[in-house]
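Many introductory courses stop at the sequence. We go one step further.
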Amino acid sequence: MKNVLATIVGLIAASVTVYIFETLIGHNLFPLPEGAQAMDMEWIKNNMDKIPVGSKVFVVIAHFAGIVVGMLVAALISKKSMIPSYIVGVFMLAATVFNIILLPKELWFTLNDGILTIAGFFIGKTLAQKRITTKNV
């Protein structure tokens, strides 16, 4: 039961981290254009060119930080198994790949988002493993 809780809380921590970096920080430092509908995927898809570069950079940072924080939180709660961290990491990787495929973006964004999310997975794994008392996979 503890591993289920670790997975759920890890996913929540990852999501909250993404929200903080992407929305609270990124959109405040680099506001979306007047009339933007940030929750409407169709609007975003049709107006990617109008979204400030700084806001896109914070999306990449958010995905990186989200996966690291989520995996670490899952390990801190589980304490004995890496499985919750792996579930969080794979879910966040899948969400990033889905985002990359779903929304047309510039090549720099796609490459950085993909590479930094994969790097985030391995950094999250390393940090999580240091918190596990019995190295179960």
